[in-house]
């Protein structure tokens, strides 16, 4: 990549000087990704300062001086490398959205300065110094996203149909379970005191709560942390009572433990464990093996590395794709979700899902099962509500999991692409049911980007308790405030969507699963022809609507003329 | 027919191909002269043409009956269980006989009768006219002419009668060159690029051994390069791997020595031979057919089969060819060993990249007629139409279709036809229902009198054109463009809709493609409706103004009948459900997807664990 007059500068923007800058702004005559590919849209703007919505590297072309600008949020930077050949320095910026940018900077000192600035600015310690706390929207807020999906409202949606459940505020002060929201839905028959007892028996205080109510047959999905049985088989009567309260007389339920049996058994040594048959005779336990933590992170690192290598031959590509195990994880997660949905819909049985903490694989399974079962979660609004309920409120630790992405060297145990795997699974279902979702692929990509780096506060913090302490609602803007504006929504709407009330069962065979090119090959391939074809498809659909409207209009006109004629002609 | 002993067997089970737990449908199996038919309890019919059967296998007797596994050339695999061994044995023997005919005359095409008269049939055969095609390319012209050297198939039996050669190449040169080329297949024109004045020529390997030369052959090559005023250098592409070509020298064959030919650039491109391709596909199919296949086994199987590597090699060769013509205006001579497999692949794909005409439905038929059928790709041997040498069978043409499919994936708007068109052609190279692909060369086809005794496939495909149209095709945007595909490894994907075309549970449940295709059709209808309505309104309006002028006169006219209105509103309703029919969701059942079967550790883990099968929970203890 050549930089015309190599002017890279770190602009202190948009406000006061004592806070760090959040954007790397790059000026150049030509901006190219490492692979000569730029898929993002060129926006004409003379100011080049429009920050609105430009989370990822965004190019702004200024018509006056023929320069291009690329804006990159510091928090999007995953790693940087520097190299020197003689006096020429090279900085390679690797982004959390997998993009790689190479800057050639003459002058060693300047290069080092820039590199260390970027390094410092992209690894801020304090959350409150991050960009969302200083971001001021340049758009009009129509609806405050912080209030779009309140638990009370969500419960309202159910309340007409579910009489056996109640909204409990036992966790109002986050004292019973630090990773739960203040309001949770629990069986009516169980009082708050019992909940407190159950919390002591479940990992992280995560007592079983309602995740999904299947209107068709009144069966439910609950989720929790693992039971703390330990080696001596501790039991908790209230826990048994709680989950039994969800069963109809004579009916069995299923417990889906996302860990393989041997891992669950090992967990006993550390005070964890699983539900013993003797104490839960009405429940049948199924063990699955969804991987977690660094295993997933390593899988992502391998996959991205392989996708970035354009030179490898076919055998190497296929063997690296296989070795990354990414699609194996996808298959395992999807299969478990399908199994859960099958138990609920076809067996007419209630389910409890947990792994160890109940904050990762558990949420993947509960949320995907809802995508399969519940048409509402396949709409834009419903999917947002699902993310809010099953990921944010449910305490998926975004801050930890998304701290680093595929290029990090730190390898912390808590970094893991759990949410990305979930989005990938949704994409796989979307591929198989392209007319059943109100949103398109871009919506999923956007959520991925914002989970890792954003100007909005939505994905900050690890749970509601932390978000409260950070006063995110007061101090930052919600992602939903931006997304749910008509101008943005139009970008994320699937033109093929036609609502159906069906349960959608995806195929999980390896031949049916695909690499998500829109994420993993995004910066490495030209999508020009694919984009054009997509546009053509949209045109055909729009044209169809237009024609239909016109035909109906003409028919009405004709009918009117006919009645007029009739009036005229009848004496 | 004498081969059929049993025509009907009841209580036959058709097993789910991928189920690990013997899920099955029960029904009746019928054996006809041309097809094997299975009708299940829901009256769903499965037709299998005898010619499509690649192998029949009788497995060891089980308690429920005698298993019969049939693998088809169109990648359908069926697994029956016949209750009585005797019946199974009869069907097995009949199918063995019926699927491998000894004589051409016993093939389906010779008995297939689509109720057309002779004139219609002849018109069908005349639909594709190669002389017309060469004219379209711009030959004959001042540099290229039609040669009558092979008019009686005297020089080369496997070439067509009409061959185009450089004008300056005299008959003795042609004859001399043909004696120096394997099977007499001397260099001739395959495609002429009018604006670049460059040519794609094809031939077989030279009989050069370690040192033999042939002046006539050298002259012919020089004539080809001289026929191109734009670039006097020409490429000679040997599509074989270098080692294979070198080994051929020991047998008195080999490749061109750059020192002996002036102005040539010699290049190996490394496409493997038919035997490697055959076993590669075999491995691929083995992997695909595995029950409870894991992601890792799938990808390691895909890798070790080498299939996508071979596809990429063919594509890379075609790109090399297209680039030489498009970027350097250089003519290219392509050959392999005999010049009818890899050469056909590379010449036809190269032309397809260069010339948008071949990306239309008709153009694609022409391309197949020209580079495959007329130049003697041995369809009958490669597809195993007759009971012959299994070592001659190879999926060379299938690979060509797959390369085209990969191009349609990269350039979704560049092709007039869709995937269904490719699949349908693939179906018929094996079906022997039409005469086009029967025989191994033109001479043989003439001897078989195919044009009198059988029908051509192309008019039938054209009649059905609607089904094969790509709704996103844009004849403008990429019309003149040379396609420049990117062959980075990750652009090559497993072609599920070919190799699993009958395994519907593996397919997406809603097809964007079908919806857009139907919407396109609907749009045409709507445009027509609008015109109709507008003219009706116009009529009414003029009538009204007339009416105002001469109100009294019109008093006698009857008011519009309510019946017409009713039909109009009916039409309006009828328009919309089209979508709904299309958007039904196929295979939407958890049982079809075998979620529980993919969990391997799950039934063994411990006694009280539940295994879910076909939506029914069952204890495994």
Compute the number of strand runs of chain B: 16
Biggest sheet strand order of chain A reads 1-2-5-4-3
**Which protein chains are joined by the largest interface, and how many residues does each one contribute?**
A-B, 93 and 98 residues
Strand content bin of chain A: 5-15%
> What is the first-to-last residue Cα distance of chain B?
52 Å
Low-confidence stretches of chain A: 1-21, 27-63
Number of domains of chain B: 2
Helix content of chain A: 25-40%
N-to-C CA distance of chain A: 84 Å
Q: Mind telling me the C-alpha Rg of chain A?
A: 26 Å
Binding site for substrate (chain B): 273-274, 336-342
GO molecular function, one term (chain B): phosphatidylinositol-3-phosphate phosphatase activity
Organism (chain B): Bos indicus x Bos taurus
Family (chain B): Belongs to the protein-tyrosine phosphatase family. Non-receptor class myotubularin subfamily.
Question: Which tags fit this structure?
Answer:
heterodimer; A: 571 residues; alpha/beta; 5-stranded mixed sheet; 19 helices; 13% strand; B: 621 residues; alpha+beta; PH-domain like; 2 domains; 7-stranded antiparallel sheet; 14% strand; globular; disordered C terminus
What does this protein structure show overall?
The complex is a heterodimer of chains A (571) and B (621). With 571 residues, chain A is of the alpha/beta class. In chain A, 39% of the residues lie in helices and 13% in strands. Chain A contains 19 helices and 15 strands. In chain A, strand 11 and strand 12 form a beta hairpin. In chain A, helix 9 runs parallel beside helix 12. The radius of gyration of chain A is 26 Å and the shape is globular. The N terminus of chain A is likely disordered. Chain B has 621 residues and is of the alpha+beta class. Chain B folds into two domains: 94 residues, PH-domain like (Roll), CATH 2.30.29; 379 residues, no CATH class. Chain B is 41% helix and 14% strand. In chain B, the strands form four sheets. Chain B has a seven-stranded antiparallel beta sheet with strand order 4-3-2-1-7-6-5, covered by helices on one side. In chain B, a hairpin with a 4-residue loop joins strand 6 and strand 7. In chain B, helix 9 packs across helix 13. The longest helix of chain B is centred in the C-terminal third of the chain and has 38 residues. The radius of gyration of chain B is 29 Å and the shape is globular. At the A-B interface, strand 14, helix 7, helix 8 and helix 19 of A face helix 8, helix 9, helix 19, helix 21 and helix 23 of B.
